[in-house]
Sequence to fold (424 residues):
Amino acid sequence: MTATDTGSAGPGRGWLLRLVVTFSFAQGAVSMARPAVSYRALALGADERAIGVITAVYALLPLLVAVPLGRRTDHGRCAPLLVAGVALISGGCALSGLAGSLPVMAAWSGIMGLGHLCFVIGAQSIVARRSAPEDRDRNFGHFTIGASLGQLIGPVAAGLVISEHDGRMAPTSARALLLSGAVAALSYASLRRLEQRAGAEAPGAPDRPAGPPVPVRGILRTRGVPAGIVMSLAVLSATDILTAYLPVIGEDRAIAPATIGLLLSLRAAATIACRLVMTPMIRWLGRTALMAGSCALAGLLCGGLVLPVPVPALAAMLVALGFCLGVGQPLSMTTVVQAAPDRARSTALALRLTGNRLGQVAAPAGAGLLAGIAGTAAPFVLLGALLLASAALAARTGRTPAEPSAPARGVRRSRATARRDSPT
Fold:
């Protein structure tokens, strides 16, 4: 067994387990805080427009700093971003619970979003540096399980805390926000030895080359990067709009809120299951076919949600949709990281996150406009079209430098090819 093999498997991946645990706490805190922020704002007298502004601030503020943070991470350490990110998430959550006015709440919501961005850029960059090229798909898949766990547990916890005392939404929503701040702070328990000052990259990996910063336009023109960004944006938009508009469909079809909550939980559980079997699926289908096929099938399923099917059929469709959507985020990370120039990987990840944030702002706004004009079916048709376009772009990209055939990775390519061709 080579040094590289021992470095990417078994005990050598303890850092990845700690990172998943850390991400679960951080994402769980954010997923708990975001609905609690809306309830807290309503208790302070906010209307629908004010809720929209507060929600938008969460996504808009990070847009201003994503690329500079990526630049900094390309030429420095990643762990400080995780430490700062957890502090901002924890502080933003807790202080939102203490805020007494809507402008102050909006400001702390923006701080929370900035902290989440810092954490995610740092964490994704650690995975990129410490993973051998042939292990990145698997490691990014396992890393995103942390996000899925947080997204699965956080909203449920928020609902339990806020609905504990009926009719007292102001104090219970504040309590939920304070609790979410404490949950984020628990991330520090596993936030250790995630990055080494020396040898943080995967054993045998080439050193990060020095040189001037790669222009953003140059990164975006690199084959594979646009496909990764668009796929990530489409998948995240689908998840957000599905969460927002499935209750509306439930109301139209007289489906109980508890059943809708269960359906959304099934979708999240299917996403986790998908990421646990990412490596065998890539080995069986290939990365390009898996990306294109999962996005295409997800697009068709999104369109199918508008059909008047019974609840069991709707549940089956959501399980399949959740499984397909589970592919997009980890493989888009790998696509962007391995397609981008070596000295601009963190910047490329930051651009991907910028696309995500733009999607979080534009997709709900566009969905709301379409729903007002053409009914609740329109957002799902829009999502289906977006996912099908993403599938076409992924298929057109074909064999990108993100696959092990990149000339710059000759040694890695040989090992990856041998592993892929092996009967085991």
